[in-house]
Design goal:
This protein is α/β, with parallel strands linked by helices. It folds into two domains: about 130 residues, Rossmann fold (3-Layer(aba) Sandwich); about 140 residues, 3-Layer(aba) Sandwich (Rossmann fold). The chain is built from eight helices and ten strands. The chain has a ten-stranded mixed sheet, with helices on both faces. α3 packs parallel to α4 and α7 packs parallel to α8. The longest helix is centred in the C-terminal third of the chain and has 25 residues. About 10% of the residues have low confidence.
Length: about 290
């Protein structure tokens, strides 16, 4: 990943936290930071906006958002190469276009103006599902101390991409990776009636499969401590619980088994709502 880290801002507290996260990540990766604020073209077309001086006030506000974010990033990471752009257009389309040349696209979990509902609504899901680069959703200020990276894994192509990003981030931060494999008991099977021994065998088999699939990652990143957790439970609850002790939760944009349709389906939507740390959504096929 050699492109800049791109962060979408709108002046909200969540986007300020996103700027901090993006600046830190750009510094770790040794790449520039690009700050983008999108002004939607219809922002000044509503009747209650048709007052003298409104257009100038809106322009001043947008410029203030951009300059404030750039100043914060430069103060947080002195010497960091920072550029800023004020664009007009549709938020999703602009951010998707930016993602084509970016190492990662960072946004806050909520916003104001054009970024309202960016992640928890349809706009955010559109970005997470279609951005070319990883999309990082920042919920708030980072937690103190070095903490692990948690990644959801099921062996699919999408979770392989999530693994790559998780191990890259862990290596840059000098922290460990916790690989979580969540599986559920099929409905209306003998397992659901209390066949404890058979259930234990299924768990053992799942753990062994996950261990073998993790072997290449351990070899590629020998300096990254790895913890493996195979858990019987709903992926939303399992991932959200592990996110309490994490700096970052990484998931693929789709998956198999317990992680099926994450992040674009109900599972991923639930994770975005319930995670206690930043969430990275990663698609396959992105350059390393």
């Amino acid at each position: 990943m050699t492109g800049p880290i791109v962060v979408g801002v709108d002046g909200s507290p969540q986007s300020t936290a996103a700027v901090d996260w993006a600046a830190d990540d750009a510094a770790r990766r040794g790449v520039p930071l690009k700050i983008v604020h999108v002004r939607e073209p219809w922002a000044n077309k509503y009747p209650f906006h048709r007052v003298e001086g409104f257009d100038q006030s809106l322009s001043d506000y947008c410029e203030g958002v951009i300059s404030g974010a750039a100043k914060r990033a430069r103060e947080r990471v002195p010497g960091l190469a920072v550029t800023a752009e004020l664009a007009t257009g549709m938020v999703v389309e602009k951010l998707k276009a930016e993602s084509r040349q970016a190492a990662a696209l960072v946004v806050g979990s909520r916003g104001m103006g054009g970024f309202a509902g960016l992640v928890l609504g349809s706009v955010g899901l559109g970005v997470a599902g279609h951005a070319t680069c990883p999309v990082v959703v920042v919920r708030g200020p980072g937690k103190a101390g070095q903490r692990e990276i948690v990644v959801g894994f099921d062996g699919s192509e999408h979770s392989e991409a999530a693994m790559r990003y998780a191990f890259e981030e862990a290596e840059l931060r000098g922290v460990g990776v916790r690989v979580v494999y969540a599986w559920q008991i099929p409905a209306f099977t003998p397992f659901a009636i209390g066949y404890t021994r058979a259930l234990d065998e299924v768990l053992e088999q799942s753990t062994d499969i996950a261990r073998r699939q993790l072997a290449p990652w351990r070899e590629k990143y020998p300096d990254v401590p790895v913890t493996q957790s195979a858990v019987c439970g709903h992926p939303i609850a399992v991932l959200s619980d592990f996110s309490r002790g994490a700096d970052l939760l990484v998931v693929g944009s789709r998956g198999l088994g317990g992680f099926g349709s994450a992040v674009l389906g109900s599972v991923g939507h639930g994770v975005l709502h319930r995670a206690h740390c930043a969430v990275a959504v990663v698609r396959p096929g992105e350059p390393s």
